[in-house]
Design goal:
This protein has ten helices and six strands, in the order ααβαβαβαβαβαβααα. The protein has helices spanning 11-16, 23-33, 52-58, 78-87, 102-111, 126-134, 144-150, 162-174, 176-190, 195-209, and strands spanning 39-43, 67-71, 94-98, 114-117, 138-141, 154-157. The mean pLDDT is 94.
């Protein structure tokens, strides 16, 4: 027997989405991680299935003032990532933050132009839900799991076509009405998921299996 249970954004991110960032906190977070605005954001690891190469290949076609912030713990794939960035001549536009605690991550989500999720495969896609909870527009690959979890609250692209990634990022950055619409859709989408609901459904599944 198989049942599907959905993860959810931590309550911290949902609360952060309803609050404004103080100027002091914004400056502190940007300075701590060496982040310069404007920037697009990715949160996670650099495993090949995450397709970070797609973002790197898109960067040369985006405005040269736009940086790419990679928020995640360093791992064995970092060196390969930076080698690829140097080949594409975009190494100076990549900001590697290392691990970021939720308190600071919520600020980065809020300040980002958009959250970009180019994965070729995922189990759920929790960072995208976190981004929506905070009010960050999500631009994601059009794989089935993202379309199921994010619904209309994300803008999709073919993860194997960097030009499509570029087009969708430019679309969300250049259309304020669309940004506002996607933020509202994101807030509503997040309400569909909760850890309490996941726990209840998991317990029901165990009872069914007995």
């Amino acid at each position: 027997k198989v049942i599907v249970t959905y993860e959810a954004a931590d309550e911290f991110f949902i609360k952060a989405g309803k609050e404004k960032i103080s100027e002091g906190k914004e400056k502190q977070v940007l300075a701590t991680y060496g982040v310069k605005k404007p920037f697009i954001l990715y949160v996670g690891n650099a495993f090949p299935v995450k397709n970070i190469d797609g973002i790197l290949e898109a960067l040369p076609y985006l405005d040269k003032n736009i940086n790419f912030v990679y928020a995640g713990a360093r791992n064995v794939f970092f060196d390969r990532l930076m080698e690829k960035a140097r080949e594409l001549n975009v190494g100076n536009r990549i900001i590697l933050t290392g691990f970021v605690p939720n308190e600071d991550l919520a600020v980065l989500y809020k300040l980002a132009e958009c959250f970009v999720f180019p994965s070729l495969a995922e189990g759920f896609g929790l960072p995208g839900v976190e981004a929506m909870a905070v009010g960050c527009p999500v631009v994601a690959s059009g794989i089935d799991v993202f379309r199921e979890v994010y619904g209309e609250a994300a803008i999709y692209f073919d993860p194997k076509k960097p030009k499509e990634i570029v087009n969708q990022i430019q679309l969300i950055m250049g259309n304020e009405k669309l940004r506002i619409k996607q933020k509202k859709l994101g807030f509503e989408q997040v309400k569909k998921y909760s850890w309490k609901k996941l726990a209840e459904e998991t317990l029901a599944g165990y009872k069914l299996a007995r």
